[in-house]
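Reviewers asked in the last cycle whether our approach scales beyond single polypeptides. To address this, we selected a multi-component target totalling 1950 residues and predicted its structure end to end. The input consisted of the following lines:
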Amino acid sequence: MEQSRWLRRTGPARLEYGADYNPEQWPRAVWDDDVRAMRTAGVTIVTLGVFSWALLEPAEGQYDFGWLDDAMDLLHRNGIAVDLATATASPPPWLATGHPEILPVDADGVTLGPGGRQHWRPTSPVFRTHALRLTRALAERYRDHPALVAWHVSNELGCHNVHDYSDDAAAAFRSWLRTRYETLDALNAAWGTAFWSQHISDWAQILPPRRAASFPNPTQQLDFRRFSSDALKEHLRAERSVLREVTPDVPVTTNFMVMGDTRGMNYADWAAEVDFVSNDHYVQPGPGRDELSFSANLTGGLAGGRPWFLMEHSTSAVNWQPVNRAKRPGELARDSLTHVAYGADAVCFFQWRQSAAGAEKYHSGMIPHAGEDSALFRAVTDLGRRLGDLATLAGTPRTPARAAILFDWESWWATEADSHPSSRLRYRQEALDWYTAFLNLGVRVDVLPVAAALDGYALVVAPILHMLPGALATRLTGFVAAGGHLVTTYFSGIVDENDHVWLGGYPGPLRDLLGLRIEEFGPLLDDEAVTLDNGATGTLWTDRIDVTAPDVEVLARYTSGDQAGRPAVTWRRGASYVSTRLGPAGLAPVLGDLLARAGVTSELPPGLRGRVELAVRGGYRFLINRTASPVELDDGTELPGTGVVIVAAR
Amino acid sequence: MEQSRWLRRTGPARLEYGADYNPEQWPRAVWDDDVRAMRTAGVTIVTLGVFSWALLEPAEGQYDFGWLDDAMDLLHRNGIAVDLATATASPPPWLATGHPEILPVDADGVTLGPGGRQHWRPTSPVFRTHALRLTRALAERYRDHPALVAWHVSNELGCHNVHDYSDDAAAAFRSWLRTRYETLDALNAAWGTAFWSQHISDWAQILPPRRAASFPNPTQQLDFRRFSSDALKEHLRAERSVLREVTPDVPVTTNFMVMGDTRGMNYADWAAEVDFVSNDHYVQPGPGRDELSFSANLTGGLAGGRPWFLMEHSTSAVNWQPVNRAKRPGELARDSLTHVAYGADAVCFFQWRQSAAGAEKYHSGMIPHAGEDSALFRAVTDLGRRLGDLATLAGTPRTPARAAILFDWESWWATEADSHPSSRLRYRQEALDWYTAFLNLGVRVDVLPVAAALDGYALVVAPILHMLPGALATRLTGFVAAGGHLVTTYFSGIVDENDHVWLGGYPGPLRDLLGLRIEEFGPLLDDEAVTLDNGATGTLWTDRIDVTAPDVEVLARYTSGDQAGRPAVTWRRGASYVSTRLGPAGLAPVLGDLLARAGVTSELPPGLRGRVELAVRGGYRFLINRTASPVELDDGTELPGTGVVIVAAR
Amino acid sequence: MEQSRWLRRTGPARLEYGADYNPEQWPRAVWDDDVRAMRTAGVTIVTLGVFSWALLEPAEGQYDFGWLDDAMDLLHRNGIAVDLATATASPPPWLATGHPEILPVDADGVTLGPGGRQHWRPTSPVFRTHALRLTRALAERYRDHPALVAWHVSNELGCHNVHDYSDDAAAAFRSWLRTRYETLDALNAAWGTAFWSQHISDWAQILPPRRAASFPNPTQQLDFRRFSSDALKEHLRAERSVLREVTPDVPVTTNFMVMGDTRGMNYADWAAEVDFVSNDHYVQPGPGRDELSFSANLTGGLAGGRPWFLMEHSTSAVNWQPVNRAKRPGELARDSLTHVAYGADAVCFFQWRQSAAGAEKYHSGMIPHAGEDSALFRAVTDLGRRLGDLATLAGTPRTPARAAILFDWESWWATEADSHPSSRLRYRQEALDWYTAFLNLGVRVDVLPVAAALDGYALVVAPILHMLPGALATRLTGFVAAGGHLVTTYFSGIVDENDHVWLGGYPGPLRDLLGLRIEEFGPLLDDEAVTLDNGATGTLWTDRIDVTAPDVEVLARYTSGDQAGRPAVTWRRGASYVSTRLGPAGLAPVLGDLLARAGVTSELPPGLRGRVELAVRGGYRFLINRTASPVELDDGTELPGTGVVIVAAR
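The resulting structure, written as structure tokens, was:
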């Protein structure tokens, strides 16, 4: 894994601060104002060129780098480093109309037109050729520019184009399947094509799961998700190869979107492909700030403890939600510092100066429409100063927690597939519920990709670990055998890597470990709920559990519904099972009990637990007020509402 | 009507028991386990080959019958009969990709791809050729096989492909219209093309009702529904012709879907095309068990009192609903026996062994994922034994009730067409409301296709009989004239067979019979309700009724809303009209009154009415507990919750 | 502006009364009944031929005018005038199937098929040629027919086809843009193509905003709306040119749809193209009768005080809403007379005789399905008599009110564009809220297109005047400087004509006038509300207002939410700002205050305000009962519920 190189940069370590900078949107005269204001705000780095293809290459093979030279020089003269985009995120009109064969096609066969952004097929050979030529031209132009500290491949790869059903995609999918399965016999077995007359007798018969008369084959769908993530990863690798060839000393990244419902890209699989992890994160009204913390935490997990780059978040409102709330006083700093708490060494925004025109003109920036004379720009400047004071944090790893939540993109995909016992399951929400329950108890927890090493963790929660290949089952069983505590939930351990059900009773490979066997699922209708004898309420799901081992402890039983009298939550020698959705409140007593059994305790004084979130990094404790009200800390000082204090660890 | 031949079978009559059996999903070694377990469960028959085309004909014209020979022989050796599918339900990949012109096209012009099942145009000559060739090959191969007792044409014809808008469909639609109308003048008159500039001057101008700028012509839409049902019926007839030619002694069936919202196929029109009626039925959470009883009852009506075959239902959960509930203890037997009560001579499931892979792996089977050591398989075995004990029922007709509900696919289609006074009408729900009202009063009722003979019925309910051709109006009027009692409802008697409104006041041809005239409809908004002077509440609809005959009795009047003071329910010399949606509770007093006037009484003791459903067949009374609580019968025995007892009729 | 010619008609002035008349739907024998009944009903005019193309031109270039000659003659003999349609609204099947290149294409690329109506591309040269040929043939045929009093171009232009994304549309869009921008530099600047790599380097790269991978460029979308409106206007002009050439003395109109959510056609821009304005209006359950009054009022505003023609409304129910209510007693007359109150000189319906077949058979007519012996036909006849008595009103202008509400199609389009601070804003609803607030206070208000002269108005309300080009800002500022009172609301004054944000703080060009500055918007989530210190509740939106001028009066402050303590409603020297959605009830006190400051008072006695709507036209006062209960007037007479009295103005 090469993912450890930080910026090509001289000078003392610091936390970087900045934004996407799109000077081409503004007259040249504004640029001087920009760099002056950047210095006021404490900006150290900007991302340039993300959407500049049409201006950099105004016609095929004809480049106009003059304006970018000017911007690079201006920034450098002012001490601002550049994370330079390869500018391939959005193809120019001449390419989209001259080569419509680069345009993505949806499952219905509708070609997605130009006019927005990211209208390209990940597998288009034509697009690839054009993108790599521009990448090479940029790399050769700026290889020795002193402002250049990192390469930014494309932008938010897969935000709009991850699932492409074009003929290019079909050909690439076939090729990907040949690599995966080698023989049609293996593919037919994996896909279960003996059913519904789907036996494939020639590779050419394989198509993406375009809209069909009925449910497409589930393993085909799953493989198409895997392939789609891999196809974008291949694009990343292709641009990276050019960049490494020309500028072997400049680290390469691309901005992930570990955030909300974005799920098409298996970032656990991508993380090793970048020299350092970058992430974009935007807050949404419903999931709120725990989701931000969860995402930052998981991004830290993907980065394996190394520095990562918060490439985009917002100073205030965004423009793509149904209703876009402005941030309240304090939220800007709290959001940014929460990312820092989980390992971010750079805090950047989209974008420097809020656009006056175009699709993102209502997306906030570091300088709002109102200009520098604004509360927002003052808050931006305050944050810049604060980050400047935290230079000693730069490069430090997070201090691992004693508990972890496992996160697995393949289980996410598989859990929410069609024709399941319930269409209501939400993989990420269940993980987030557990995360909130940890925060409510004041206990630190790491969010980790499922393949992460579990050494040193006393308690590991694997919510809805639906897809459980044999090797993973063995690894988790070994973790418990070695003294670890494992918690898993409903609909876990159901299928192998081909989405084939483990037979003999659920959850196949975990039956012995848990000492229980489930013959039938008991999903609940939308208006149904069941009660447990610990006072909690379960929704969404139940299981008809039979206990099969004498040493199983029933931690909670159902007292209503079809499973009344049966176990709801069990524990056996460190392996625990939660068979319904309890939500954060219902999980609190269960998790409290499990933490006690695992010997994991809160590092916060009782009065702060729940109200304050604790993160530990580089010898510093981050105390983040989760509420809007002030909290008195144990040293008598007051942590303001929505505030963060960072103190040297005791 | 040939629909009377039962299975080609020797030995004493019995109720058949079994499932779809798809051995090709499993290794050969499992097959021996299968047949052993089938014997344990009392299985007498299985359906083979439904989705086997890709394995039976791995390349065009090349057959591999070896594995099927093996399965047929194995089953026969174990005394299990075979209902052999023609295997044409789902075309193999080589056909779908080699001949994409067989793929259905939706109203938007989107071609539905392979990857699921049933991706074929009912009117494709290419598909037809391939399907008939396979049918012939199978028929010739197994014509004399001793296991073969019936042919199963395709599978759930029209489940996903009933409405195809392809060019093949366009050509066939034109041809169908030429047969129906003979001249363009007749078609123009029927379709009312003088409006909206739609006059057709050449047959070639006719298209399916593809997505248009505005509402397509309603009669074109209606005829397209008729044509679509007929196109599938033609496919059924084509396969049947081959089968009858090769194996004249083997009866032919296909599985209907008299169930829920499935409405594309006019089964009243199809029933005469099969040697015996088969049906698939699945319970859905909302409509519940009365819907099951209604569907079974209607299936019995389609079968005209002859034995019918419950080809598919489920032992427990299915996989295609938003949330798929497992069946509770007792529900499996109760559901199956309710079908038997209404005439089923075979109780079969989809499928024998629950799949480990593929789109239906979460659809329950006779052997669940948990295996034979499971409550479900024990319940399956119990039911097999119970059916074995009921052999004397086999072949017996149901004993007609004294009341009937008429069901008409054409009124269903016409009622729920677009650009109507209300888009909220639900034809089948109104019929089901009446059915539940009968059950609540403990009165038996037959559900009949509208063309059924009404002799012997004292009371006939025709809910929302919207499409009322003159001949039907005459027949119903004659029924009343002969002393019968007829009840009809809002939006009945409005249009003729071409969807032309009967003029002069609604309901045109029933005005004189009912002694009333309606000038305007009074549909209700979603949040509106009206009260009646009998305490009931009406929703969905009202009518502005004027009484035109002196001998009309007003059984209930509106006391609120725009029609306050006007009649809501009327009766005139045996003809009654209900002008609003009352729902089962509101219908109870009205129906009670109407039954009394018709002299129809409950055959249940007062204490059982509503709690117990009664069906009478072959000299046996089925007492079905509609509740989850035990009910004490008049002989002092207890009918358990969700239970069924079958006693010799008194 | 030629829009002043009224009908080519002799005889004394009168209010016209009639309907669309489609005799071709009925046998010839019915026509005689029709004209007899028309005379009974007081019909003076009918619209003929709207959907007759297929019968008038049964094959390309072959005409059959015989039946239309007959109808024209019959009508003329009976003293009924004809507004003759050009019959081009719905192309005949031979044209749609022979020239499928006329069919519209949606944003997904789906071609909209024939089978309904209006399936033609506004920019199709092929369609245009055919339409103009028919127009010429009709004009030449009937130029001297004495029944002909006006031409009716097409029908409801744009009802279904306003946004066409076909290749014809693409070519025409490019041509339109060349005219608007002249250079690509100007277009690139206006569209802000420097962002998202959208720089256009060749006109051929421009496409309609077909479905894209992400938000299409907002100015492209806005220009496509402008172009689409203009493309239909061009069609109107093209037919008009033919008509004026052949019959220079016959006035030309086309029926607008100032009604509900119909927004694609900028009627403020179209009004000058017709010799007199016509409108179609249908009541919908939710918005109710104030919406009717608002639409009639705005139509009067479009007509600039000249007579206009209510071309279509309904006698009772329509057929295209989810649930279609019949009109209650009195509503027919009240609805019609409300249109007359705001300047209609003709009251017409769709259609004369309710269809027995086709898509609109459940749309009410002057003669319902029940026939002439019906309450509805009697009400129609009563209304005809009443209109006959109002002949002195004919040709009179409305008496301007002292207050006005400005309505702007471009702000409507721009306000509800995507990627905005809130997707919940509803431009027309806010205007309607203000209108209802005026009615509740008993104060007359004119609804005017934004370009209307404001001389003589004391108070002008500009709700959500989002798009504020500099010239308009100057004009409004001048209005206040001249002593006028201006009220505007949240999200007003935000962008210029290219949808570029005015920088420096919102609302850019109105900051000085209002004496305030807004740095950030505060849109509210769906379940959020805020309180004001005047007791009102705000929803949907708030603004973070800073007062920048010392003479600003804060009329109401927020007392909850993020803006608690800040101004909610302000006033400065006649310029007022309302920063949240108050709804009619919440607007009442605010508007009352503003009216007092502007010196505008109610012309109704206090007891009638709110219950009665007042309109003044031609020296007559229309008193319209807004309630279902009777109201005692100041002269002691009773105005019945849902009733209208018309009295000579004092």
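Residues 218-246 of chain C form the longest helix (29 residues). We regard this as preliminary and will revisit it once experimental data from Aim 1 are available.
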